[in-house]
Amino acid sequence: MRLAGQLLLTFLVNATWQVALIGAGAALANWSLQNVAARYRHSLWVAALVLAISFPILSCSYVIRQKVAAVSPTFQPIVITRIIGAEVDPGELSGLSRSTPLRRDGAPISPLHINSKLATAMIVFFLLFFSYRGLNLWRAWRTTRAIICSAYEPEFSDSVRAIITKCQRTTRQTRVRVVCSDRVPVPVTVGAFRRLIVLPTRLFDETDDQILLSAIGHEFIHCARRDYLINLICELIYLPLSFHPAAALIRRRTKQSRELACDESVVTTLLSPESYARSLVRLISAAPITGHLIVDTTIGIAESDHLEMRIMSLIRNSKSTPRRSVFLGFAAFLLLAAPCATAASFALKVDVYPGAPLGLSQAKVQEPEADNNKNKTRAELSEQVEQSRQDQSDPKLRQELLQQLQKNYGQDDERLKQERERLSQLLDKYPGDSAEMREAARKFAEMSDEYQKQIAAANQQLDRKAKLIHKVEPQYPDDARARGIEGTVRLGMTVDHDGLPQNIQVKKSLDPSLDKAAIEAVRQWRFEPALKDGQPVSMWVEVEVFFSPDAGRMAEQTEERIRNQENALLDRARSQQQELEERTKAQDKEAYERANTQYRELLDRSKAVDDEVREHTDESELRAKIRKLNEDAEEKSRGAGLEAAKWAKISMTQAIQIATSKYPGAVLQARLFGEREDKVFYQVMIANGDDITYVWVNAVDGQIAKTETAKRRHD
Fold it and tell me: Quick one: which H or E segment has residue 137?
C-alpha cells in the first residue's frame, strides 16, 4: 500500500510541472509551425500528449528500481588492506579506510518529503478527477453504442450514391459503411477498425450537392486518417492527466489541429476552399444548438469550436517552401526536445513522512551540515598530518626535546641520590624497625617507581614505531572484475624519514592491473616516521591487499562456512548426547542386574537357612533364628536405606502409591536401597492371590524401572 501511494504521489508531483513544461514547449513549437501544413501541427500535439504521460510514468520507475534494489541489493567489489608485522602502528582509520561503498543505490536525485495529510489530500483530489473523467468516458461509450444500434442503411438517391462513390474512390476507403440515424444532429465517424459513418436523417433533405459532398467527404477523410483510433488513444492518455489544465489545453489543441488537417485534405482532393468554407458555415449553422456530441468517442465535422479559425485557414491558404518547412520542423523539434530533456533530468522522487514539513526535504536540510562536517574533518586531518611532518623534520625541535629529557633525567638522578644518602643516615642512626624508618622506606619506593615510569615514558618518546596516519584503499579495475580475478597482492616499501613510501616493490603479484592499482593507492599513504633515540629513521614495511570481484559472493562464502561449522557442532553435540544416553542405559542395566543378583542371593540364603534350621532345630528355635535373621537383614537394610535416603527425591509412600497404581494388591514389604546418587530405588513387594510382584521404583524421578513376579509359598 505504501509503495502504491509513493508511486502515485511521484506521478502527480512530476506531472504537475512536467506536463506544464511540455505544454509550453509544444505551444512554442506550434507557433513556429503556423505557416506549415496542419497535419504537422496535429502530429506535434499528439506527440506532446504522449510525452506528457510518458515522463511522469518514467519518473516512477526509479521508485520501483529502488524497491527492487532493497530486496536484491547489488554489491560492488571489496578491497581490504593490512600491514604485515608489528613494526608499524596501523592507527585509528576505521572511518577513513574504505574508499568505495559496498552497496550502490544509483539514485540521481534526492527525495522530496511530503506531509502525510497533504499526500492524502492530493491522492483524494486525483482519484475524484479520475473517477469523474472515467464516468464521462463510460457514458460516452454507451451513447456511441446506442447510436450504432439505432443506425440503419437507407435507400440513397442517385446523387447521394454518386457522392459516396466519389469519396470512396478518392480516399480509397471502399470498406467504410455509410448509415443513417435520427440520434445524431451532424455527421459523425465511429469505429476504430470497422469504421462507420453515421449521417443525420435530415441531411438527405439537402438539395445542394456541395454541402453533401462537404459533409460526407469530411467524414471519409477522418476514416482515411484513422482519426477515430488516434482520438480514442488520446482520450485514454488524457484520463490520468485530466486534473492538469495544461493537459486539457494539449487535448483541445489536438482536436483543433485534427479538424484543420482534415479541412486541408478536403479542399486538396474534393472541393475548392471557397465552396468548402461556405458549405462548412451552412452545415454548422443548421445544426441544433445542443452542445458537443459525445466528443470523447465520436469524430464529427462540427466538433471543433473554432469555426472562425477554420474558415480563415481555408481562405488564407498560405504555403511555405520545402526548405523553410524543413527548417521550421527542425526548430519545432528543438523547442519540444528542450523541455523533454529538462523533465527527464530533474524528475523528483517523493517519500511520505508523518512529521515532515510540507514540501520540505529533510535530506536537503541535513546535506549542507553533513558536507561542512566532512570538510572540517578533512581539513583537520590534513593540518595534523602537515604539523606532524614539520615537527618530525625540524632538527631544532628534536634537539630541544633531547635537552629537556636530559635535564629531567639529571634532576631525577639528583633526587634519587639524596634519598639514598638520607636512607643510609637513618639506618646508621636508628638501627632496627621504627616509624621513621618505615616512612623513609615508603618514600624511597615511591621515588623509585616514579623514576622508572619517567624512564619508560622518555624511552617511548625517543623510540617509537612508525604510525599510519592517512590511508587510501585501492580501486578495483573494471577489466579485472570482468575476468573475476580474486586474490592477494603483497607489496614491500621503505618508509623514509618524512613518513613517505619509497621504493615500492611487488613481492607477490596477482595481475598487472591489480598490482598497479595497489601501488597507486599505497603511494598515497602517509606515516609518522619511526624514532630511534629521538631521531626519525627509515624502515621496511610490507602490505597485503586483498581483491574480491563481488562482496556478495564473499558474504555467501562466509555464511556457508558459518553454516557448516554450526552443522558440525550440532552433529558433535548429538553424538555426545547419544553416547551419554547409551552409557547411562548401560549403567542402569548393570545396576538393576546387580540389585537383582543380590536379592536372589539373599532369597537363596534365606531358603537354605530355613531348610537347615528345619532339619536341625525344632519349631521354636527355627522361629527365633528366622526372627534374628530378619532383624539383622532389617538392620542392614535400614543402614543402607539411611544412606540412600539422602539421595531420594520421593518418599516411600509415594513409591508405594506408584507401584500399587500399576500393580494393585496388598503391600507386604517396601525398602530403599542404592549405591550412588543417580542409582537409588524403592523395592515394593505386592501380594495378589498366589503371586508376589516385586516392583523397583526410581527414587529420583518416580519411574518404574523393573518388575518381577514369583509364586507365593504357603508353608
Answer: helix 116-150
Q: Which residues contact 441 (CB under 8 A, 6 or more apart)?
A: 423
In 3D space, the residue among 254, 238, 370 whose CA is nearest the CA of residue 306 turns out to be 254
Distance separating alpha carbons of residues 534 and 395, to the nearest angstrom: 10
Tell me how far apart the alpha carbons of residues 180 and 193 are, in angstroms, rounded to a whole number.
19
Same domain, 563 and 704: yes
> What single DSSP character describes residue 699?
T
Q: Is residue 62 part of a domain?
A: no
- 691-698 and 679-688: which strand pairing? antiparallel
b or e along 314-340 (b: 16 or more beta carbons within 10 Å of the residue's beta carbon)? beeeeeeeeeebeebbeebeebbeebb
pLDDT in tens, 626-673: 677 666 656 655 555 556 666 777 888 888 888 888 888 888 888 887
Q: Which of 455, 377, 440, 190 is nearest to 300 (CA)?
A: 190
Using DSSP, state whether 107 is helix, strand or coil. coil
What 3-state DSSP class applies to 174?
Answer: coil
Specify whether 523 is located in the same domain as 661.
Answer: no
Nearest to 52 by CA among 11, 111, 99: 11
Q: What is the pLDDT of residues 380-437, one digit of tens each?
A: 655 655 555 555 445 565 556 555 655 555 555 666 666 667 666 665 665 555 566 5
Assess whether 470 and 454 both reside in one domain.
Answer: no
Three-state DSSP string of 226-283 = CHHHHHHHHHHHHHHHCCCHHHHHHHHHHHHHHHHHHHHHHHHHCCCHHHHHHHHHHH
Residue 408 counted as domain residue: yes
**Full residue range of the structural domain in which residue 535 is found:** 466-549
Q: What is the mean pLDDT of the chain?
A: 75
Residue 708: CA count within 13 A, CB half-sphere: 14
Rounded-to-integer distance, Cα 266 and Cα 215, Å: 10
Are residues 585 and 631 located together in one domain of the fold?
A: yes
What are the Cα distances from residue 690, in Å, to 602, 659, 662? 21, 18, 18
pLDDT above 50 for 356: no
All residues at 6 or more sequence positions from 380 whose CB lies less than 8 Å from its CB, including other chains: none
First to last CA, the chain: 91
Residue 673, in any domain of the structure = yes
Residues 559-610: pLDDT tens digits?
A: 677 878 878 888 888 888 888 888 878 877 777 777 778 777 777 777 776 6
| Residues 511, 572 share a domain | no
Listed in sequence order, the DSSP H helices in 358-394 are: 362-393
Tally of structural domains, the chain: 3
CATH number, residue 686:
3.10.450.40
470 in the same domain as 458:
no
Counting every residue written for the chain, the total comes to 715
Regarding whether 577 and 646 lie in a shared domain, the answer is yes
Q: Are strands 196-200 and 177-181 parallel, antiparallel or unpaired?
A: parallel
Q: Is residue 609 part of a domain?
A: yes
Handedness of CA 607, 613, 618, 622 (dihedral sign): negative
Assign residue 534 a region: left if phi > 0, alpha if psi is -120 to 50, beta otherwise? left
Q: What is the pLDDT of residues 286-300, one digit of tens each?
A: 666 544 444 455 555
75 DSSP assignment? B
Are 635 and 692 contained in the same domain? yes
Boundary (domain end) residue, out of 424, 447, 462: 462
Q: Which one-letter amino acid corresponds to residue 592?
A: Y
Residue 120 bridge partners (DSSP): none
Q: Domain holding 531: CATH number?
A: 3.30.2420.10
